[in-house]
Amino acid sequence: MLFNVPYIEWLGYLSSVIVAISLTMSSITRLRWLNLVGGISFAIYGFMIGSFPVGLLNVFMIGVNLYHLRKIYLNNSINQQK
Questions:
Q1: What's the pTM?
Q2: CA gap 52, 23 in Å, rounded
Q3: Which of 26, 34, 37, 80 has the most CB atoms less than 10 A away?
Q4: Which residues lie closer than 8 Å to 33 by C-beta, 6 or more apart?
Q5: What is the C-alpha separation between 40 and 32, in angstroms, rounded?
Q6: Domain ranges, ordered by start, for the chain
Q7: Is 4 in a helix, a strand, or coil?
């Protein structure tokens, strides 16, 4: 415990901050990467506290971010080959 707050709660706060910061990014790639990290930590948090809706929503977000990051990097790779 830190400041009388359980460590698992700190993970939830940290996850929230990461997701919130990701939404301030002007670069879509940075937004996706930060949101991915926030989603992973939020999914872990959700499953650890037994909240399946939180965990499953964030697993979905992880998939969406990975899909878009793959698309971004594949398009960049194709454009560099031209």
A1: 0.85
A2: 24
A3: 34
A4: 22, 65, 69
A5: 12
A6: 7-81
A7: coil
